[in-house]
Amino acid sequence: MGLAGVLSVFVSKKHEKPWEVVDSKAVEPVPLFDEDDDLDIIYIHETRVVRSFVFDVRKDRDLESSLLFAQQQFFEEVQRKGFNALWSEGWQLTLLRKAKRHRVEVRYIGQPACLAGKPVQPQQPPFIAVLGELRQTYDM
User: 11: burial class by Cβ within 10 Å (0-12, 13-18, 19+)?
Assistant: First the structure.
């Protein structure tokens, strides 16, 4: 592959339409534990960790599946780095459209922690019902 071929990978085509932002919903990180919980905290990551995931979607139920998959991948990544729980958790979901195609970008945000004992299995993402607003508004 010549120089022109390599450069074409990095340069967008002029005739190609960009993805249009249709809507975005966000849930700011919320604490998953409160003062009443009897926890033996070993350490908490000093900052929040953010990861982005992009999925092509065809049906409205794919929005929830995308968010759940992003949460799972996020949690698996923090586990590989020595954490076994999330101290706080939040997300942002941006719905994109290009012609009849839809894509969703999920930004998952969390503050990993290490607690004594077994790993804390994640529950559903906080305030997942917010996705219902997207489902009702946009037909896919």
Answer: exposed
| Global pTM value | 0.82
For residue 90, list its beta bridge partners: 109
Pairing of strands 101-115, 20-31: unpaired
3-state secondary structure at position 65: helix
- Which tens digits make up the pLDDT trace of 65-96? 999 999 999 999 999 999 999 999 999 999 99
CA separation, residue 96 to residues 19, 93, 99 (Å): 6, 10, 10
Tokens of 61: 């139920």
Q: CA–CA separation, 110 vs 71, rounded Å?
A: 9
Cβ pair 88, 31 in contact under 8 A: yes
**In the chain, where do the E strands start and end?**
20-31, 41-44, 49-57, 85-98, 101-115
